[in-house]
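Following up on my earlier thread - several people asked me to post the actual chain instead of describing it. Fair enough. Here it is, all 243 residues.
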Amino acid sequence: MELARDPRANGVVYAALVFGALLAELNGWRTLTYLLRPAMLIHLSVWFYFSSRRYGNRFTLLVQAGLFFSLLGDIALMFQHKDPFNFILGLAAMLLACICYTIAFAQNVAEVGDLEGLWISVLIGVIFLAFGFFFVFDLVRYLDDFLMVPVIAFMVGPILLGAAAGARFKRTYPLSFWSTMIGACCLMAFASLLAWTRFVRPFERADLLILFLYAAGQFLIAFGSLVHVLDPDQIRRRKALAA
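Reply from S.P.:
Thanks for posting it. Predicted structure:
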C-alpha cells in the first residue's frame, strides 16, 4: 500500500506509460495506443485515490471526478475516427473534467478567503480570458454550425481552469500553486492545439505534442492537488475542525 502512495515510484510508472503511448502513437501501433492512453489516467487516478483517501473531502472528490471525466474524454477522442460524434462526446467529457478541477480550486480559494496576492490572481485570470477570447474569435470562422457550440463550450473549460488555478496564488503552498498552474497552462495548450489542428492547420506530429501536453497537464494538476491535500498545516486544520 505504501508503494501505491509513493510519488517517485508512481511518477516513474506514469512517465513510462506516457513514453510508451507516445512511441505507440509515433509508430502507428493503434492497439498499444488504445491500451496505454487509458492506462495513464487509470494509474494517475489510482495513485491519487490511495494517496488522498485518508484526508478525502470535497476537494479530492472533485479532482478524482476530473480525472475520471478526462479518462472518458480521452477514450472518446481516440475513437473519433470510428464515429465523428465521439469527437463531441470527448469534448463534453473534457469540459466536465475542467469544470470539476475549477470547482475544486475555487473551493480552495473560498476556504482561505485571504486577499493577499489578489492582483496577481486577477492578472492571470485576465491573461487566460484574453487568450481564450482571441483564440476562439479566430477559430469560429473555421467551424460549421453543428460544431460551433460544442467547440466553444470546450474552450471555456481550460479558460475557467486557468483562472481558478491562478486564483490560488498565496492561498496554497508554492509547489501546489505552480504545479497546478503549469498543469492548467498545459491543458489550455492541449485544447487549443486539438482545435487548431483539427479545424485550421494540421502539422506533422501534432498528435504527439497534443498527447504530451495532455499527459503533463493531468499529472501536474493531480500532483499539485496532492501537495495541497497532504500539506501538514492542512491536515492539522482539518483535524482541529473535526474535533
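The CA atoms of residues 109 and 168 lie 6 Å apart. That should answer part of your original question.
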